[in-house]
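User: Show me sequence and structure for the first protein, then do the same for the second.

Assistant: Starting with the first protein.
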Amino acid sequence: MTVYLVGAGPGDPGLLTARALELIAAADVIVYDRLIPASALDGARADATLVYAGKEGGGESMPQAEISRLLVAHGSLGATVVRLKGGDPFVFGRGGEEASALREAGVAFEVVPGVTAGVAGPAYAGIPVTHRDAASAVAFVTGHEDPDKPSSALDWEALARFPGTLVFYMGVRQLRSIAASLVACGRDAAEPAAVVERGTLPGQRVVAGSLGTIADEAAAGGVRAPAVVVVGEVVRLRERLDWFGVVRPLGGLTVAVTRARAQASALADRLRRLGAAVVEAPAIRIVPLDGPAMSISGYDLICLTSPNGVRILFERLLAAGGDARVLAGARVAAIGPGTASALRSHGVVADVVPPERFVAEGLVEALAGVPVSRALVARAAEARDVLVEALRARGAAVDVVALYETVAEPLSEAQVAAVCSSDYVTFTSSSTVRFLLQSLGDGARLGGRLVSIGPVTSAALREHGLEPDVEAARHDIDGLVEALLADAVSGE
């Protein structure tokens, strides 16, 4: 098999390449760094081995020699291995060292480039590293050389003379020394300079000044790594070209997303585009239940109550050699637009979708005029019986198939702390309420405003002594986002 040295980009999950996502989904083993997008591992297989090999606070959690040894060991055993690195693996990412170790051991490898922070961070700050009128060249420089080197490999005089933009990676701690060395070698102290902290992320900050003042400006602003330093005339363009820093509705707010990992990314992406810093804290996990391959026949109504139910139903149908055609002849009802969308992805257009109130009661109302004699309800094991009882009360024979169960997903201490300090905590089901509070324990308290997707979820909050601050009028993800936005705007 092959070891893939994969660049995960600078932090914004949207900058992960299609090839990176494809390899993450296929990997047997993923060895990953600290500075990768928060959701980068969401697509990993449940049985994949995940190995953390990041760096924290300037010290290595795992020595580079050990990382290379791990890659060689797993690659030699025939596993598909992804070495997931922040930015680009060959731009100050030590990917070259790892590739050399693999080549020496006779292990096949491929390199998947990623978007590098030295281009993306400035771009998100409105600073193009090259510009026809301001800079025809750009130099990428490490601000943190190997401490074991006997002397610096950087030619400061050449860098001072360089006719273009200078971009320093990992240069925050050495910023004063970098600026002083450039000025001492002849670079103009009045030349514009900027530091981009946490580039491409919602918490991105930009501190600007001149080469002579930037160290003081950064110190006064409390700038910390990860950050890139940009020196050059292109920095002047920021005032005109800044786009990411434009005030967005949820800018400056932290929102916790508690739904299952597989479904969290769409909501998290929506919130990030609105400017929020998102805490992904999946409190639940969807576990398919063992069951026979399904063959559907004889029903005049088939009810689906969640996208998860749709996915697992079709997995069962495919296992029996069937597909969407087996639903022909029956009316298909979906509890809401999310479930209807999941059906469309399998080539099925729902006949019945409640116009509002995307809960069991709403589906009962939508089915009031639909004739039914035999119905199938495919759902979660712990679902309420409102729909089943209503159909039976009408004289219908109803079969219930439990396709999956919702179980607790343990949260780390860091996730618990982040959720408790969030400005908003979103709940998309009663199970997210129950299992999040279970993970928090008795000592933890939610400090932010509680956002509920609808009345059933709100009732679950109240059962635990919590009053929702916001309840969506439309009981789906669109409605939840709309309600959160309205609350955030009204609170300004």
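Switching to the second protein now.
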Amino acid sequence: MEMEVVSEKANPVLKRKEIVVKIKGGGATPSRKDVVAGVASHFGVEDKLILVDQILTEFGTPEARARVKIYDDPQFIPKKRLGIVKARSKPAGQKVEENAKT
């Protein structure tokens, strides 16, 4: 999986970077775990500081775009948002914890 940074914007008020990456190769839509691992290695940050907002594939091409947020500190990640992202990252068939829904 090859990754290219399309845009990078610092958001000092919310203590994060907002990034759009283009992912090439692999054929299928990459999983959130793959995107997190690629962004973590590219930017040299821990996995727990990264939230993947959206992964979009382009029809007819082996490319995808992902909107990612990298936080400076885990305490700045909104608790509600973290629960939603954790729920999306669960494999199919697993139950979501009640705390993650709120």
